[in-house]
């Protein structure tokens, strides 16, 4: 029994050496190939493409002396405009059936081009021939629209469908494909209109009925989303207006700089209900600085009725305070005033009382306060005043 064996890498070399025989003279090439010895590989390949057996496209051959190709072209393009276009349409149909959409589109385009060529003197004329040409044109356009649809060339698809409907308003395929293309482009009202136009001609067309329901569903969902978005925008606008009114009512001064910091989701808020001006309270983002140690803490929501003391209960002791300088009874808080001075913030004084006094302003939506050990507060105050000068 014979079996397949794996050959070693030097098998070819050894075999050639062992079985070497005297070289036989090469037979002469045919006359039309005699010059190939002087050609490069690319030149030989290009020359072979001129032969019908090796050609890949008729359009690749431009040699006017190539009699074989001229004969093929003559056979392909013989006939009236309608006959030539019909031939291209049939080739396009073959490509479409094979789902070769790009090739199908090209054949349908050639068919349409053939209908624009000037008629030959011997071509038949009259109403029958015109009607035949219109039928071929309609078929090429509606089928090219399908190719465009499959290739996701949705705008080109709509143009072809509209051209079909200009010729034949009752063409249901054109209405259907136009609806699909418009749906893909999210032009929902137009898609629904095109679908309804098709149903006017064929009310029981199952594909159109299903498409109409699909488009209607998407329109309904889009309207729901749009209404929800409008309601949210209206609510956000009302909330913003209510917040501004609450700040003004409390006589709190605010200012926004050219480059405010990014606070992410931290902001001045009315809680619990941002629309309840009378019953809700304000909360502020507060940055608590420890200037003597270049440290800080960020409090996302500091209530207007809260004092600094209520937050010191969980902030102190500080993990980096090795000397235990920051204790609840041994610290003082200060805020900078609008004029650049300093205002002491009593540990039991509510935030609102400090902010509504007119001396302190909230810059970029954030309250800033400094916390210092009592023993070193005077030293820091003198240094701050020195810097102001």
Count of DSSP strands = 8
Shape: elongated
**CA(first)-CA(last) distance:** 108 Å
The major beta sheet can be summarized as: 6 strands, mixed
The secondary-structure class comes to: alpha/beta
Strand-residue fraction? Answer: 5-15%
Protein described:
The strands form two sheets. Strands 2, 3, 4, 5, 6 and 8 form a six-stranded mixed sheet that branches. The protein starts with 10 loop residues before the first helix and ends with a helix. Strand 5 and strand 6 (342-345) form a beta hairpin. The protein is built from 13 helices and eight strands. Helix 4 (81-97) packs parallel to helix 6 (127-150) and helix 7 runs antiparallel to helix 8. It has 389 residues and is an alpha/beta fold.
List keywords for this structure.
alpha/beta, 12% strand
Short description:
The chain is of the alpha/beta class. The chain has 13 helices and eight strands. It is 50% helix and 12% strand.
List the helices and strands and how they pair.
Blueprint: H1 11-18, H2 41-48, H3 67-77, H4 81-97, H5 101-114, H6 127-150, H7 154-167, H8 172-184, H9 188-201, H10 206-249, E1 253-255, E2 269-271, E3 281-290, E4 295-303, H11 308-315, E5 331-336, E6 342-345, H12 351-355, E7 361-363, E8 367-373, H13 374-388
Parallel strand pairs: 1-7, 3-8
Antiparallel strand pairs: 2-3, 3-4, 5-6, 5-8
Helix pairs in contact: 4-5, 4-6, 5-6, 6-7, 6-8, 7-8, 8-9, 8-10, 9-10
């Amino acid at each position: 029994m014979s079996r397949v064996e794996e050959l070693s890498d030097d098998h070819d070399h050894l075999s050639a050496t062992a079985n070497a025989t005297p070289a036989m003279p090469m037979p002469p090439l045919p006359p039309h190939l005699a010059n190939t010895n002087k050609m490069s590989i690319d030149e030989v390949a290009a020359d072979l493409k001129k032969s019908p057996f090796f050609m890949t496209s008729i359009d690749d051959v431009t040699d006017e002396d190539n009699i074989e190709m001229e004969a093929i072209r003559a056979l392909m393009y013989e006939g009236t405009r309608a006959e030539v276009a019909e031939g291209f349409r049939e080739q396009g149909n073959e490509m479409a059936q094979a789902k070769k959409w790009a090739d199908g589109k090209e054949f349908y385009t050639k068919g349409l081009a053939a209908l624009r060529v000037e008629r030959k003197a011997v071509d038949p004329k009259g109403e029958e021939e015109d009607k035949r040409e219109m039928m071929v044109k309609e078929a090429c356009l509606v089928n090219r629209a399908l190719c465009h649809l499959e290739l996701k060339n949705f705008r080109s698809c709509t143009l072809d469908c509209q051209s079909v409907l200009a010729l034949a308003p009752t063409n249901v395929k054109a209405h259907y494909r136009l609806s699909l293309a418009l749906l893909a482009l999210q032009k929902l009202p137009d898609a629904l209109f095109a679908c309804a136009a098709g149903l006017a001609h064929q009310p029981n067309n199952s594909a159109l009925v299903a498409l109409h329901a699909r488009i209607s569903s998407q329109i309904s969902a889009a309207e729901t989303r749009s209404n929800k978005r409008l309601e949210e925008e209206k609510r956000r606008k009302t909330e913003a207006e209510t917040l501004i009114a609450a700040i003004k009512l409390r006589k709190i001064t605010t200012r926004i700089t050219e480059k405010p910091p990014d606070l992410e989701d931290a902001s001045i808020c009315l809680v619990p209900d941002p629309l309840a001006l009378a019953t809700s309270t304000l909360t502020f983002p507060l940055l608590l600085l420890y200037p003597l140690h270049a440290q800080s803490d960020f409090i996302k929501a500091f209530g207007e009725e809260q004092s600094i003391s209520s937050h010191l209960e969980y902030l102190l002791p500080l993990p980096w305070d090795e000397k235990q300088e920051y204790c609840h009874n041994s610290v003082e808080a200060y805020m900078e005033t609008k004029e650049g001075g300093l205002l002491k913030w009593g540990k039991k004084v509510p935030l609102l009382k400090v902010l509504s006094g007119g001396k302190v302003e909230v810059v970029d939506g954030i309250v800033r306060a400094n916390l210092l050990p009592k023993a070193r507060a005077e030293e820091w105050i003198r240094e701050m005043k020195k810097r102001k000068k």
